[in-house]
Every structure is written in structure tokens, then in C-alpha cells.
Design goal:
This protein has one domain. It contains three helices and no strands. The longest helix has 29 residues.
Length: 87
């Protein structure tokens, strides 16, 4: 009986720890520190992260990365309506 009680306590403790970690993840997501369950990252944010990583690994290509980022900013600020997609 004592052994099964230990396993029950261990299982309940593990569930509580997992629920706590879930709550911490949701809290971090609300603060903007983490993409967890509710907010999905955009593909451009992943691309920008990879560009930053490449600039660290290959400093000689920094000017190419800066040009791509400026081009992306200009397109976003152009004020033109979005292009129609293919139907």
C-alpha cells in the first residue's frame, strides 16, 4: 500500500509541474518573450532571425543582409494595396 501511495504522489506532482510549466509558457507568451500556443510566429520573423544568425557567422555579408532588410521595410511602407493572389 505504501509503494502505490508514493507512485500516486509522484504522478500528482508531475502533473502539477507540467501545469505550472504550461502557465509559465503562456505568461511568457503574453509578455512577447515566447511563441507558445496561442500566437503563431510569422515566416518573416523566422527569416529575420536566420539573417541575424548569418550576420554573426559571416560578417563579410552584412551589407547584403542590410540591403534585404531595407528592401523589405520599403515594401511594407509603400502604401500600395496588396497584390491579388491567384484564384
Amino acid at each position: 500500500m505504501e509503494e502505490s501511495f508514493r507512485w500516486l504522489i509522484l504522478a500528482v506532482g508531475a502533473v502539477l509541474v507540467l501545469v505550472g510549466l504550461d502557465r509559465v509558457g503562456l505568461w511568457m507568451e503574453r509578455r512577447g518573450w515566447l511563441y507558445y500556443r496561442r500566437v503563431k510566429p510569422s515566416s518573416s520573423s523566422l527569416g529575420n532571425a536566420l539573417l541575424e544568425l548569418q550576420s554573426i557567422l559571416e560578417p563579410s555579408k552584412q551589407h547584403v543582409i542590410e540591403a534585404r532588410l531595407e528592401e523589405h521595410d520599403e515594401q511594407a511602407d509603400s502604401g500600395d494595396p496588396p497584390k491579388a493572389g491567384k484564384n
